[in-house]
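Holo prediction. Input below; ligand is adenosine-5'-triphosphate.
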Amino acid sequence: MISVSGVRKSFGAATVLNGVDLEIRQGEVVSVLGSSGSGKSTLIRCINGLEKIDAGKITVDGFDVSKPRELSEARKRSGTVFQLFNLYPHMTAVQNIALAPVEVLKVPRRQAEDEARELLRSVGLSERAEAYPSQLSGGQRQRVGICRALAMKPSYLLLDEVTSALDPEMTSEVLSILAALAKTGTTMVFVTHEIEFARSISTRIAFLDKGQLIADLPTAEFFSDKGMALPRVAQFLSKMRKD
Amino acid sequence: MCRLKFDLSILAKHIPFLLEGAWLTLQACTLAVIGSLVLGLAVGAMRTSASPLLNRLAAVYVDIFRNIPFIVQLFFFYFGLPEIGIYIDAFTTGVVALSVAGGAFTSDVIRSGILAIDPGIIEAAQVSGLRKSTIFRKIILPIALRASVRPLGSVFINLILTSSILSTITLNELTGSAKIVASNTFRPFEVYFVLLVAYAALTYAVSIIIGMLHRYLNRNQSEGAV
Ligand SMILES: Nc1ncnc2c1ncn2[C@@H]1O[C@H](COP(=O)(O)OP(=O)(O)OP(=O)(O)O)[C@@H](O)[C@H]1O
Ligand SMILES: [Mg+2]
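Structure of the complex:
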């Protein structure tokens, strides 16, 4: 379980997360929605330990991410997929994927690379296994990024706007992979602006507004009168649907 | 005044001596390039580390050695240190001095190579659970070095040129032996002409190798221009 409780985070004078509580259990797909600047990325970056929190506590399977010793354990249990892919430019797709399993989990290189190829095959990239990131399209890069996260066999997948740097066609190739992952029971925390997609794959929706979680509801309820009863949510949804 | 004819043939019998000097230059420069690189990597890493102490220490080193003429550093090592009981032979002194001075410039290049890396790439490595040392060896260093090949080439070419100053501490490398030949033959024009061509050839060769290395290491890195 990922547990976020009473988390506060400021950058200078700006409070970005203002007392956030959120729990994500195995098997859930939680979409985090909210307007730009509401703190979604910051929340993800606090969970994977890229930002230090000012108050509160975040644990991943009981490991406290604020404690350096436990952070490495927490990080073994969660995988992150980035908006801008962040692939290692000097490594091939296979090398990108196999690096952490070899170095962190001590999987023999051969085996790690075989598993990497298998992952690439599952996302339709078997032909591009030896390609470098610069030789791949955006959608292909993001699929490699997803494989890289999955290679660590994480209990949780953290995804921050993983399709917002992609054109519609590439977006749908990546989304279909995520939908397949959701079906197989992969636990995901999914920050997105793709409202309809979030609705179709999520078990729950968490809605951030100015650093506060003002809604945390099962998907159906969120998109029903119950969600609409919250003015900020109604406003957000109507605005998103217009765009 | 009597103008002699430009005649390289009179240098023929001095060629082995000059080649010995060239060989010494090559040895000193090769060792100094390795020394600069090792030092530059260590100091470059220190300057980008999170530790304020290491950072400061590295910055002081770079400031000192970049802002003092090489010949002064060299004299300090060769003539100054014996005064406090440290005796090092001319060749070692030369290599050490070149490495220390070259290391300051090298570390600057490495540092900017490291700072130019997209922080997102390093974050990706961090969240995947890689240790700091692994991230440095497997991600930061290879990316920074690839970007640094050309500027490092300029530093190393400068180092070759600077090595001629080693002749001032009795080291008969290329320039030193040329001086000797010039004074023995009374043919400074021919001798220094040869010297000029020799240094030009040496640095030109290095710049070609650097260009090849750059293209080789970056062959897969960007879609268009490299
Ligand atoms: N490193 C930082 N330094 C200073 N301010 C920051 C930093 N990171 C984020 N912020 C600020 O924190 C606020 C929340 O940022 P965050 O990236 O979490 O929003 P978001 O919900 O992900 O927005 P978007 O939908 O645009 O991605 C913003 O006002 C942003 O400017
Ligand atoms: Mg964001």
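The two ends of chain B are 55 Å apart (CA to CA). That is the main takeaway for now.
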